[in-house]
């Protein structure tokens, strides 16, 4: 079985694949202070009896400190398993049409790979994570660039920290857009404000993509906070929660074919 490991700033997501099928997935809190041994112990605890069935690993980390520990863990605990760590310089088959390809994170690479695999059209991927990333992909599967915005939780934390009368609230839909109390006002601003921000960016992306050659544009949402916003978005056409894991599987398959 293939173990896909997606290490982000907030969460670590694991996916276990049997062939093309995702047979299990887990989410754990990311901690930049974790050691390789702690990472391995926590992962094996989540996988349980399936830990011994891992025969290959595809991984990425957007956290430099954890990338270092990830490499140590893979050498120490999976010395003989075929593995690929997606990072700048690793060939994924994705053309990077940006000024500095080495700046493109592994998560954006594999999301591009997965989106083009699912849709043979131009795509926009909205990844709701620590930051909200909006990326553009051509109909030929080329990564064209994107936009970053502060993530939902970062914005909520900053608001609570800087405004003395405001506090963190449950991230859920209020009774109405016009809030009747402080909690509902915050919830409305967060939920509908972020949905409006995403829709505004996506519409501009779609306009530019359409100007480059026309044709349909698929708009995919992924990331841990996507379920909060997609119901209020007017532009997102599909929710793919395992998009990054799928991209890791595809990257592993391409890497294996290239080096076989």
Automatic annotation (TrEMBL):
Gene3D superfamilies named among the record's database cross-references: 3.30.420.40
Enzyme Commission (EC) number: 2.7.1.33
Keyword Cytoplasm applies: yes
Positions contributing to substrate binding: 105-108, 182
Main location: cytoplasm
Pathway(s) of this molecule: Cofactor biosynthesis; coenzyme A biosynthesis; CoA from (R)-pantothenate: step 1/5
Residue numbers binding ATP: 6-13, 130
Record: active site: 107
Keywords, in A-Z order: ATP-binding, Coenzyme A biosynthesis, Cytoplasm, Kinase, Metal-binding, Nucleotide-binding, Potassium, Transferase
Catalytic activity: (R)-pantothenate + ATP = (R)-4'-phosphopantothenate + ADP + H(+)
GO cellular component: cytoplasm
Binding site for K(+): 127
Alphabetical list of Pfam families matching this protein: Pan_kinase
Subunit comment: Homodimer.
Family: Belongs to the type III pantothenate kinase family.
Protein name from the UniProt record: Type III pantothenate kinase
Annotated source species: Amycolatopsis taiwanensis
């Amino acid at each position: 079985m293939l173990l896909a490991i997606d290490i982000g700033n907030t969460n670590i997501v694991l996916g276990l694949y049997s062939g093309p099928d995702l047979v299990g997935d887990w989410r754990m809190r990311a901690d930049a202070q974790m050691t390789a041994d702690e990472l391995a112990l926590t992962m094996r605890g989540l996988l349980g009896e399936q830990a011994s069935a891992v025969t290959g690993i595809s991984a990425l980390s957007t956290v430099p400190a954890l990338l270092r520990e990830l490499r140590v863990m893979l050498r120490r605990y999976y010395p003989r398993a075929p593995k690929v760590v997606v990072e700048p310089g690793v060939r994924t088959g994705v053309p990077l049409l940006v000024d500095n390809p080495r700046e493109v994170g592994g998560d954006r690479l594999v999301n591009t790979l997965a989106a083009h695999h699912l849709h043979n059209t131009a795509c926009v991927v909205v990844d709701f994570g620590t930051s909200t990333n909006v990326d553009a992909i051509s109909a030929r599967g080329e990564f064209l660039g994107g936009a970053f915005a502060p993530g939902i939780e970062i914005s909520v934390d900053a608001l609570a920290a800087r405004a003395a009368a405001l506090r963190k609230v449950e991230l859920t839909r209020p009774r109405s857009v016009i809030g009747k109390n402080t909690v509902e006002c915050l919830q409305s601003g967060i939920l509908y404000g972020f949905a409006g921000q995403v829709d505004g960016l996506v519409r501009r992306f779609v306009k530019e993509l359409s100007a480059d050659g026309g044709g349909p544009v698929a708009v995919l949402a992924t990331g841990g906070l996507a379920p909060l916003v997609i119901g209020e978005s007017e532009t997102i056409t599909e929710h793919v929660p395992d998009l990054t894991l799928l991209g890791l599987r595809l990257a592993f398959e391409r890497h294996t074919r290239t080096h076989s």
